[in-house]
Structures are given as structure tokens and as C-alpha cells.
Design a protein that fits this description.
By secondary structure, this protein is α+β, with helices and mostly antiparallel strands. Helix content is 52%, strand content 15%. The structure holds flavin-adenine dinucleotide. Flavin-adenine dinucleotide binds at residues 88, 120-124, 129-130, 154-156, 200, 203, 208, 358, 361-362, 364-365, 367-368, 371.
């Protein structure tokens, strides 16, 4: 694996500095107070992060996926909720970039790059999450518009965002049902209602909302790609990126927990020596570091494949699966190393521990990842010798 390029290191260092100076001092109390980070959002706009992966011609930074993953890691070393504000916005931007009509790209991407339009993804509904084909939100053609009715649940940026990739059924009789799914670029307006903010275990400070659509009108020109029935495939392309960035989030959270554990292991003494000299603590630290490095390489491998223009769904799924299980283990071990103080809100390790489980659920649960990985293996690598066939 090639070391970071000069350009990547420059970008990573800028974000590291932003996190050290501006995020770390406020993250813990803002998260506990469930306070929306208005000023940090403005700073992220100034840093160009809302346009991180948007092409230059539409006003973005045009970062490759590998660099994007590296900066998400850095942000999550400080406060994971900030990455939530960016990630679903950028998944939507990516969907528009790869699937949108030229008109849609020219209109929306520059506004998304500055953060004037703040995006999100509306897939999940009260009655369905993993089974995307079972969505019930309907969009019916009416003249030049579509009229949307239905509900969405657990939508990141639901309150503070203003422009969403809204996943609907335009044909409820399609067989298979995925061929009836279409995505619209939906701006807030009459009939687009934010019903409530959903309280959460962790990942506080960022809004997760229930939305309802009541005779909500969206112009036909906002149908992504201009053709009905393509939505399911458009979601899949966005989710590949989403899974890489969830895996990168895990790395950031796990690295923060590990750094705190190492520091504590140096300073906390029991039985006359630093706890880092007790073998059982050393075993936890060694496992943490080894698994973090393995996850890091998996994320960079999946990102690199995507940067080379190849499909990376199996690799992105594996990275997300491994990194999220790793993050859960690292954060609980970090808490263990901190003894009783790790369980208190005086230290940040409890926040990392509360943030970790989300990554086993978001962008497709780990149960679903396992199913997808196994399907790929059986279909594309029937000998089972996938590493050789991938040329690794
Ligand atoms: C904080 C937060 C933010 C979110 N943000 C967004 C967002 O911005 N946009 C959005 O659209 N969604 C969002 N989600 C929703 C998230 O993507 C879903 O929660 C997730 O996809 C799982 O769907 P579900 O909750 O309906 O669980 P279900 O699909 O009901 O699954 C329940 C359980 O059954 C398991 N399961 C389901 N099917 C199978 C199967 N075939 N085989 C084995 N096990 C199975 C699942 O793994 C899980 O353990 C967010 C969720 C959270 C918690």
C-alpha cells in the first residue's frame, strides 16, 4: 500500500489541526447537551468540506475517495457527529454526480459544494429499513410534477438539511419491485414535514428525524437521471461510498479511544507500576492496534478500488463489517482500561463507546453485509480463492 501522497498529507493535516483546535475543546459538552454545532458547520463550509468529493467543475474540492476516507477518520477522532452532517450530504452529491442529468448537476452540485443546499438520503421508513424494495412512499405523476405521499424515518440532517434524495415507488406493480423505485431531488416545501427529532443513545448533536410527505409536489425535472425505475441501482452506487465512509468513521472513533487508552496506560499506576506494564492490559492494547491497522488497510483498499473506477461493493462491505465490529471492541476495551473512570462522563471514552454501535447498523446492518459478501463470493469467486482472483 503506497504511503500518503503529499497532497493527501496536506489535506489530512489541515483537518487534524481544525479538529485539534476547534472540535476537541467543544465536542464533549455539545454532544452531552445534544447541541447542533452551528459554528462548526460554518467552519466546515469554509474548509470546503461540503464539496469534498464534488468535481471541480461544479465548485467542489474533487478529492478522491481515499483522501475523503482519511479526512473522515480525522474528523471522527474528534467528534463523529460532524461526519454525519457531511456524509449523507455527500452520498447524495455523489448520487447526483454519477446519475443526475446535466441540468441537475449544474443546478444542484455548486449549491451543495458551498453548503447552501444541505443534503440527506431518505430511504428508511417506519415499516422497512434493510428491505429497501418494500418501501411504501409513493410518487404519482401529475402533469409536470410528481405528488409524493408517505413517511421516512431515522433521516440524518432531516431538520437542518433542505434538499434530499427522496427514495420512492413510482410503480407499485413492478416485478421485481426494485424496478419500480425512483429517486427525486426533494427540496423542503409545502407537504414536506419534519415530524420529530428522534432521541438517540449516542451520535448526539446531529439531527435524526421522522419525516412525512403529504401531497408533496416535486417537479418532474427532479427525477434523478430523468428516468423512472432506476432508483434502486442509484442507491447501490451511493451505498458503496457510504460504507467506505462508515468504515472510516469507525477508524476515527477507534483511534481516539485507543489513543486515550494508551495515554491512560502510561499514567495510571496500580500495584506500583503503570497499568500498561500489566500483561492483560498489554494484550488489549496489542489487539486494538492490530485490528485498527487491519481495518485501515481494508478501508484504503476499498477506496483505492473505487478511485480506479472499479466496483468495490464486496470490499466496501467487508471494510464496513470488519471496522464496525473492531470499533465496538476497541471502545469497550478502552473503557475497561480506564477502569471506573471510563464509565463516567468526565472522560471521552464513554462517548466513543456510545457512538460505536451505530456503525454496525447504518448503511446496511452487519447481518446484511454478511449476506452480500457471501453472495458475491459464491457468484463472482466460485473457487473461493478470492484473494488470488483479485490479484492480492
Ligand atoms: C442514527 C441513525 C441515522 C440514520 N440515518 C439514516 C439516513 O440518513 N437515511 C436513511 O435512509 N436511513 C438512516 N438510518 C436508518 C438505517 O439505515 C436503518 O436503521 C438500517 O438500514 C436498518 O434498518 P431497520 O432499522 O429498519 O432494521 P430492520 O431492517 O428492521 O432489521 C432489524 C434486524 O433484522 C436484521 N435483518 C433484517 N433483514 C435480515 C435478513 N435478510 N437476514 C438476517 N438479518 C436480517 C437486521 O440486521 C437487524 O438486526 C439511520 C439510522 C440511525 C440509527
Amino acid at each position: 500500500m503506497a504511503p500518503m501522497s503529499e497532497a493527501q498529507r496536506g489535506m489530512v493535516n489541515t483537518i487534524r489541526e481544525f479538529v485539534r483546535r476547534e472540535v476537541n475543546p467543544v465536542a464533549q459538552h455539545m454532544e452531552h447537551d445534544d447541541e447542533y454545532p452551528v459554528e462548526l458547520v460554518e467552519r466546515m463550509k469554509e474548509l470546503g468540506l461540503f464539496g469534498a468529493i464534488i468535481p471541480e467543475e461544479y465548485g467542489g474540492l474533487a478529492l478522491d475517495v481515499s483522501t475523503y476516507a482519511l479526512i473522515i477518520e480525522e474528523i471522527c477522532r474528534g467528534w463523529m457527529s460532524l461526519s454525519g452532517i457531511l456524509n449523507s450530504h455527500l452520498i447524495m452529491a455523489y448520487m447526483v454526480t454519477t446519475n443526475g442529468t446535466e441540468e441537475q448537476k449544474e443546478h444542484y452540485l455548486p449549491l451543495m459544494a458551498t453548503g447552501e443546499k444541505r443534503g440527506g438520503i431518505c430511504i428508511t421508513e417506519p415499516n422497512t429499513g434493510s428491505d429497501v424494495q418494500a418501501i411504501e412512499t409513493r410518487a404519482m405523476r401529475d402533469g409536470d410534477d410528481y405528488v409524493v405521499n408517505g413517511s421516512k424515518s431515522l433521516i440524518t440532517n432531516g431538520r437542518h438539511g433542505n434538499t434530499f434524495a427522496l427514495v420512492t415507488k413510482t410503480d407499485i406493480n413492478a416485478d421485481p419491485p426494485r424496478r419500480g423505485i425512483s429517486i427525486f431531488i426533494a427540496e423542503k416545501g409545502p407537504g414536506f414535514n419534519v415530524v420529530r427529532d428522534i432521541p438517540k443513545l449516542g451520535y448526539k448533536g446531529v439531527d435524526t428525524c421522522e419525516l412525512s410527505f403529504e401531497d408533496y409536489r416535486v417537479p418532474g425535472g427532479n427525477l434523478v437521471g430523468g428516468e423512472e425505475g432506476k432508483g434502486f441501482y442509484q442507491i447501490l452506487s451511493g451505498l458503496e461510498l457510504g460504507r467506505i465512509n462508515v468504515a472510516a468513521r469507525c477508524l476515527g472513533v477507534a483511534r481516539a479511544a485507543m489513543e486515550e487508552a494508551v495515554n491512560y496506560a502510561h499514567h495510571r499506576k496500580t500495584f506500583g507500576k503503570p497499568i500498561g506494564e500489566h500483561q492483560s492490559i498489554q494484550i488489549m492494547l496489542a489487539n486494538m492496534a492490530t485490528n485498527i491497522q487491519a481495518a485501515h488497510l481494508m478501508v484504503l483498499h476499498a477506496a483505492d478500488k473505487k478511485d480506479r473506477g472499479e466496483r468495490a461493493d464486496m470490499e466496501a462491505g467487508m471494510a464496513k463489517l470488519f471496522a464496525s465490529e473492531m470499533c465496538m471492541q476497541v471502545t469497550i476495551d478502552a473503557m475497561r482500561i480506564h477502569g471506573g473512570y471510563g464509565y463516567t462522563q468526565d472522560l471521552t471514552v464513554e462517548r466513543h463507546f456510545r457512538d460505536a454501535p451505530l456503525m454496525m447498523i447504518g448503511e446496511g446492518t452487519n447481518e446484511i453485509q454478511r449476506i452480500l459478501i457471501a453472495r458475491h463470493l459464491m457468484k463472482d469467486f466460485s473457487s473461493g480463492d478470492f484473494l488470488y482472483e483479485l490479484g492480492l
